[in-house]
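Supplementary Methods S3. Input chains for the assembly prediction are listed below.
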Amino acid sequence: MSVIVFVEIDNQQYKKSSLEAICYGKKIAQTMGISCIALSLDTLSDTATLGTYGADRVISLSHNAAFTSDNSAQLLADACKQLSAQIVVVSNTYTGKSLAPRLAVALDASLATNVISLPDTNGGFKVKRGVFSGKAFAYTDLSKNTKVLAITPNTFDIDNSGSSATVETLVVSAEASKISIDKSDKEMGKVPLTEAEIVVSAGRGLKGPENWNLIEELADLMGAATACSKPVSDMGWRPHAEHVGQTGITIKPNLYVAIGISGAIQHLAGVSSSKTIVAINKDPEAPFFKAADYGIVGDAFEIIPQLIHALKN
Amino acid sequence: MKVLVCMSVVPDTTTKITFTENNTHFNKDGVQFIINPYDELAITRGLELAEANSGSVTVVHVGPAENEASIRKALSMGVTDAIRIDALAIDAQFVAEQIAEIAHGYDLILTGRESIDYNGGAVCGLLGALLNIPSANVVTEINYADGTFSFTRDIDGGREMLSCKGPVVASAQKDLCEPRIPNMRGIMAARTKPLQVLPPKDLINASQVSSYESPAPKSGVKLIDPSNAQELIHILRNELKVI
Ligand SMILES: Cc1cc2nc3c(=O)[nH]c(=O)nc-3n(C[C@H](O)[C@H](O)[C@H](O)COP(=O)(O)OP(=O)(O)OC[C@H]3O[C@@H](n4cnc5c(N)ncnc54)[C@H](O)[C@@H]3O)c2cc1C
Ligand SMILES: Nc1ncnc2c1ncn2[C@@H]1O[C@H](COP(=O)(O)O)[C@@H](O)[C@H]1O
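Predicted structure tokens for the full assembly:
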């Protein structure tokens, strides 16, 4: 029996969300008295460092398959079967979420996505999930023997215990993929919104796309990803991938800075789980101030330059 | 081209989410239900593709009879016919297994990126695996030419272009299209379009919600003097240590 953690690699590095997943997997493995195995489809030279985060074994899969969802899921499922997986942990990223359902079917497992708690294993297996796009949580009992959990990034701490792991290779196979990847465009070095620790977001109060240089400069200085409200992406001021809220992306950064966003219920739904929320709005009655920890009532075009100035010092 | 669109029915986005019976049930009192916004996109793009390739669009919904008003709305958008599987949707796995029973014979199956109530984001991948066909998650573009579907999908930090032959299942993301608004003719026609009700397949649950919880309210905003905005940076840096 084992807890298997699927590790993602981006830009020749293990993703932070994957390190969180290993620490999460390790805690479950300890409670259940089984081992924690980190699995990756790719190999990095510093594989062993995953051990320091809690993996007992680190396994790279040896295969000659494409990285499509059907293919990768089959490879992982093969590995999970060979390693007697009881719990499979992935990150709730686009990659994780495209694999988790296919894995759950292949392993005849219960599936839970948006998981934000360690399982309660007293007399069952219960996890807390985000539902209603951030407006509520659901305690969900998973009943099948095997479980696939997709855990929300920025929710679990990373601790480096300094322990070590064995490093192995496992041969796995999959059918030929029925879908092909023709092209892949990635903005290098940019943290995806769902995994960002800090997000600077702006709304219609910014007046037009030409003013986003201010937002970008502020975000760069804070090491933040940028986001926006729905009308801003609807009008094409910003790409749709930046749209947060109930009908956009749900995020959970440590810090969310909302500038010139009124704070409509649909917007708040997607961001209210952020640990600290700052609202900057010229209208003291803006609903966002009710959802924020810190607020500045003022004109964005006066406030942002002050913030930029302060950050540069 | 035969298109199947999986449609969920969800509380209107302005709904304040509350619970009853000791937080074990969602409080439907006074709540208005709508077609899941992403599923409206799936329906619309499904219709566009079917129209361009002399095809048809079937909508399938797993849910109770009270959701038929939303199914009629889908029919009024131009959908050819509908299937309702008469069961309460327990979770994404239950839904996908029910739909898999009727999903054979379609070239393209569409879902939304996620349902805005359950947020599983899972039905697309589950169906792909159950039917042993490829799945493309979170797509912003779907095209069809010479028997091949091509997709653009969001990936972490970018996007990806995929292609394959049908059958294939894909989940709709914003930017796929503008949702179609039913016109009067569509609304009239929808009344008599076929809506088939099927009994559910017997299944053992993979999961079950035992209770719900609402987020803790914020304790109150601390206002910072706008003429001294750098105070914010000081707090973030030195007190909260988040930057
Ligand atoms: C079905 C549906 C789904 C939706 N889903 C989402 C969603 O997922 N995400 C989302 O964001 N919205 C969503 N909405 C839209 C939502 O209801 C609001 O309309 C939207 O969030 C408003 O965006 P905004 O705050 O940028 O613009 P506005 O509401 O126009 O607010 C602009 C704010 O900027 C302030 N302002 C103006 N000038 C300045 C200045 N110079 N300096 C500082 N502040 C200034 C104003 O006081 C105001 O509060 C949805 C709506 C519907 C109907
Ligand atoms: N009860 C349902 N009936 C039909 N389709 C559904 C149902 N629930 C979810 N779906 C489909 O699956 C998608 C993703 O849902 P979910 O996995 O719940 O986030 C939705 O956008 C719908 O297309």
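The first strand of chain B starts at residue 2 and ends at 6. Residues B 6-8, 36, 38-39, 60-63, 89, 92, 95, 111-112, 114-115, 118-123 surround adenosine monophosphate (ligand 2) (CB under 6 Å).
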